[in-house]
Amino acid sequence: MVLKKISYVPLASDIVHSGHLNIIKHARKYGDVIIGLLSDKAISQYREFPILSYNERYNLVSKLSGISQIIKQDDWDYKQTLKKIKPDYFVHGDDWKKGNLSQVRKFVINEMKSWGGKLIEVPFTSNISRKLIKDKIDLNLSISSRVSLLKRMLVLRQNLIGIEAHNGMSAHIIENTKLKEKNKTKAFDLLWSSSLTDSTIRAMPDNQSVDYSIRINGLNEITNISSKPIIFDADNGGKIEHLPYLVKSLEKSGVSAVVLEDKTGLKINSLFADQSKSLQDTVKNFSKKIEVACNSRISKDFMVFARIESLILGNGMKDAIRRSKNYVKSGADGIFIHSKKKDSKEILDFLKKFRKFSEDSIVMVVPSTYSSTRERELFFGGANIVIYANQLLRSAHKAMEETASQILKNGRAYEADKNISSIKKIIKLIN
Ligand code: SPV
Ligand code: MG
287: Cβ below 6 Å to ligand 1? Predict the structure, then answer.
């Protein structure tokens, strides 16, 4: 009996298009087609998180003809998979010769050689691609899959970094800021919709003068640009009777999580030195709010975070821990513990104490004042989500202030030109 050759085709395919069908057709000429369907984890290591979950993608791909087997591929760089399968042929589009995956391509060629296998490259179908389709259907994310994104990410990775997006431009910058680290690409995982920056861009105080409906409308600009999950800072959530409508609006806007803080009365930003007019809610009242928010969600994946202000208000660590226990018991998916200290000692102390009784709850921290602490120290201490809550807006503010005064001083823009993005760059950015 002559054994049939194995023709291996790696696929991510949360959008299946004719380019994929073309690759499978080619692969069949060489042998039995095994599809290596990349897991969510594998995909998220080299590009944005997939829109469809692994199971959904599996169902989709299993309906395609010409496939002998689908296996789960958990490594995006093929280091384990290739050794295991030792395929005779490895079939891939030729669009990976440049860019992110070119190193991986070199590895595949060498590895395949070691058992006499061969890389077959199929010319890229230029009029179709995942990106083209994704753009065409205007980001393509159905609201429900958008809402689920954060929970899905947290299942795969327990450490995420987020940054504040206050409009379409900041979302665009976040979407396109990537750092190549060895063979991996580092990018921000999620977006923080901040009450502080949403107020500041309108030159309004962070005291809920900018109401929820204005802020939620603004999210549209962001979701048009970015498919990263959004966490919404809802201050104290307002009146308990209004909470179900807030949660519903957030879900309908594609938000993945809401943060409610345990303060009452007129809102004052937590980083404000004078908190004398701020009161902390009772555990009973606030726990009720958490329950109401949890019970009003439509999607089981929408997450509710309880923000504890004990350390901000000077009410102590004991109070913070007591509250965290109660809020988790009330159904909060996670805790946001905040501090306005210059160092992270009290945050790390909280994390240590909290982790003694809760291993699973998600903990979010915002190192604005203790900015010298690195993400990895916070993750190591037990945090799951680290958020840079206002740095983009602050950098834009400083740059604009400097440019405005330079123009006034010089009576022309020439001196400012070297410190600002060129017109060419700006025009190209938008197209
Ligand atoms: C925000 O970004 O609006 C926050 C975080 O709530 S802080 O400003 O530190 O209170
Ligand atoms: Mg806020």
Answer: no
